[in-house]
């Protein structure tokens, strides 16, 4: 039941439309979670049906009406219970590592290319997150509140994980060069 909790967490920040929620998923928490548009709207409908959120129509002047979703008291309680509850076992999906696991049939140049492509991708992600961290770092420090600190801490955790994978890839590329063909 993770996406409902993700959306409730965002709604506790402020009321949002489905579009706003999708935008937050694609930007401010993309390092933590992703969902497609259909998943967001289906989950929002479920939250409303379950009484965890409600919808208020905001009349538009010279633009269409907006359907803003607001977290309810029941929604806040469900979010709080989830936050305080036990950690769920995380499903592991590592598409790159599955490729590596099955890559024994590749030629040495192909194998090196497989790792090099991932290396370049990681370097790009790390650069993006570092830029985000720099921008957020100043804002989080100025805000001086727990929420801003924790948001910045999740970004830092993502950077550390990516840097660890990058280190592993560089080490593996070196080791591959010493293996017999």
Automatic annotation (TrEMBL):
Q: Which InterPro entries match?
A: Tscrpt_reg_PadR_C, Tscrpt_reg_PadR_N, WH-like_DNA-bd_sf, WH_DNA-bd_sf
**Origin superkingdom:** Bacteria
Q: What start-end ranges are recorded for coiled-coil regions in this protein?
A: 119-179
Keywords tagged on the record: Coiled coil
Q: Does the keyword Metal-binding apply?
A: no
Domain Transcription regulator PadR C-terminal intervals: 92-177
UniProt key word Coiled coil: yes
Q: Which residues form the Transcription regulator PadR N-terminal domain?
A: 7-81
The name this protein goes by in its record: PadR family transcriptional regulator
Which organism is this protein's natural source?
Neomicrococcus aestuarii
